[in-house]
């Protein structure tokens, strides 16, 4: 069976998109997702994105990390799907129904409401999520925010200097986070500018993480470090994040289609 795919990215966070809205797709499981994502033996991507019909929105979108695990949310991929659709649309995700629409040269997405209760992150036990009293070497006292997926954010003087490739996996797998966690290191550069690097749960270091940008912006706003609209610059480029009076987060930024192709399912599925 030949399966069509679309290769896309949002600020270098790259995706293989399978469109099952009108054509039947093979069963998507962790093994197939990980095989397709593999950069040596597969197509190669940070996330596999699957589009399906929905009964409650214009379409349903599922996100799989490079290790095959499914995530309820992926900000950059949501913008990429918005680009594919080319018009305002509602997207059913495991994190709720989101709204994406063209905005200038990019796509704006209503990413929903952030959650801060320790059970909602989730943490293994009750702690103050505005200042978690924990640390790993020089990374201490992070904020925890759930924006559909779990994030911790460490505010540091120079995020470029953090050995995130070493500390990221330690923190991701710490028993404090029963569903693991995305690890953000951020430097506030002014009332409306943040620099950010992210170790993504299930994928590792990426060039950009949309939900990481949302969680970091909201964490910085909760701490009073920045205004309610902020530009978040990641290695792959810049997103604008606004946290409105209605408690909803809007993420705006670019997305790109790279190429289209097909793969032979038998090479990847068991
Ligand atoms: N790249 C993403 C986030 C993908 C999911 C994340 N790794 C998780 O498991 O929660 C983004 O742009 O938000």
Automatic annotation (TrEMBL):
The gene is dapF. Keywords: Amino-acid biosynthesis, Cytoplasm, Isomerase, Lysine biosynthesis. The record marks 151, 200 as: Could be important to modulate the pK values of the two catalytic cysteine residues. It holds the Pfam family DAP_epimerase. Its EC number is 5.1.1.7. Homodimer. It catalyses: (2S,6S)-2,6-diaminopimelate = meso-2,6-diaminopimelate. The lineage of its organism: Bacteria, Pseudomonadati, Pseudomonadota, Alphaproteobacteria, Sphingomonadales. Gene3D superfamilies: Diaminopimelate Epimerase, Chain A, domain 1. One of its GO terms (cellular component) is cytosol. This is Diaminopimelate epimerase. Substrate binds at residues 13, 47, 65, 75-76, 149, 182, 200-201, 210-211. Catalyzes the stereoinversion of LL-2,6-diaminopimelate (L,L-DAP) to meso-diaminopimelate (meso-DAP), a precursor of L-lysine and an essential component of the bacterial peptidoglycan. GO terms for biological process: lysine biosynthetic process via diaminopimelate. It is an enzyme of class 5 (isomerase). The active site is at 74, 74 (proton donor), 209 (proton acceptor). PROSITE patterns: DAP_EPIMERASE (PS01326). One of its GO terms (molecular function) is diaminopimelate epimerase activity. Pathway: Amino-acid biosynthesis; L-lysine biosynthesis via DAP pathway; DL-2,6-diaminopimelate from LL-2,6-diaminopimelate: step 1/1. Belongs to the diaminopimelate epimerase family.
């Amino acid at each position: 069976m030949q399966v069509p795919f679309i290769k896309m990215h949002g600020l270098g966070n790259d995706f293989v998109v399978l469109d099952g809205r009108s054509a039947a797709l093979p069963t998507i499981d962790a093994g197939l997702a990980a095989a397709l994502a593999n950069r040596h033996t597969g197509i190669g991507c940070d996330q596999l994105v699957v589009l399906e019909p929905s009964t409650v929105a214009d379409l349903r979108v599922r996100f799989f990390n490079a290790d095959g695990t499914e995530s309820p949310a992926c900000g950059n991929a949501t913008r990429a799907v918005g680009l594919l659709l080319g018009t305002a649309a509602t997207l059913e995700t495991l994190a709720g129904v989101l709204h994406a629409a063209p905005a200038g040269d990019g796509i704006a997405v209503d990413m929903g409401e952030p959650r801060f209760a320790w059970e909602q992150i989730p943490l293994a036990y009750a702690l103050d999520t505005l200042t978690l009293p924990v640390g790993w070497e020089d990374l201490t006292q992070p904020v925890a925010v759930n924006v559909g997926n779990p994030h911790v954010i460490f505010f540091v003087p120079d995020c470029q200097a953090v050995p995130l490739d070493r500390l990221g996996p330690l923190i991701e797998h710490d028993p404090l986070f029963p569903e693991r966690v995305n690890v953000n290191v951020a430097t506030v550069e002014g009332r409306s500018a943040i620099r950010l690097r992210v170790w993504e749960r299930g994928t590792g270091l990426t060039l950009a993480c949309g939900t990481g940008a949302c969680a970091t912006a909201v964490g910085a706003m909760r701490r009073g470090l920045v205004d309610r609209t902020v530009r978040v610059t990641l290695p792959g480029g810049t997103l604008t994040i606004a946290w409105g009076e209605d408690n909803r987060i809007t993420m705006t930024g670019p997305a790109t289609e790279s190429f289209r192709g097909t793969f032979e399912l038998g090479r990847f599925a068991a």
